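Query structure, 111 tokens:
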């Protein structure tokens, strides 16, 4: 299983656990960790998508060169797949973030 698939499974498991009306500190801590990891992963993949877009722009200037159109098709397909993964990941992170907030996560505890 890929790291991406494992991350989505962790998000789904935590989301299911957070679906109740209350949460303990352990669950909130686990959600906070997966949110941090998930957003870092989304940012990393968005940077990769931008690099692929830049490379596609470069290839457009030399599309008549041998192999350029083949590489462009391959990179375009890779970018579409990556962008779909980013959308899915961000959607799931939004859901678990909303649960985290509803359960009181992220609020500082008075001293």
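Result returned for the query:
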């Amino acid at each position: 299983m890929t790291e991406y698939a494992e991350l989505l499974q962790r998000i789904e498991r935590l989301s299911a656990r957070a679906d109740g009306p209350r949460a303990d500190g352990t669950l909130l801590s686990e959600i906070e960790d997966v949110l941090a990891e998930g957003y870092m992963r989304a940012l990393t993949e968005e940077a990769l998508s931008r690099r692929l877009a830049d490379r596609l722009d470069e290839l457009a200037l030399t599309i008549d060169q041998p192999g350029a159109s083949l590489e462009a098709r391959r990179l375009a397909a890779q970018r579409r797949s990556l962008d779909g993964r980013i959308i899915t990941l961000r959607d799931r992170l939004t859901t678990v973030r909303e649960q985290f907030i509803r359960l009181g996560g992220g609020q500082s505890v008075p001293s």
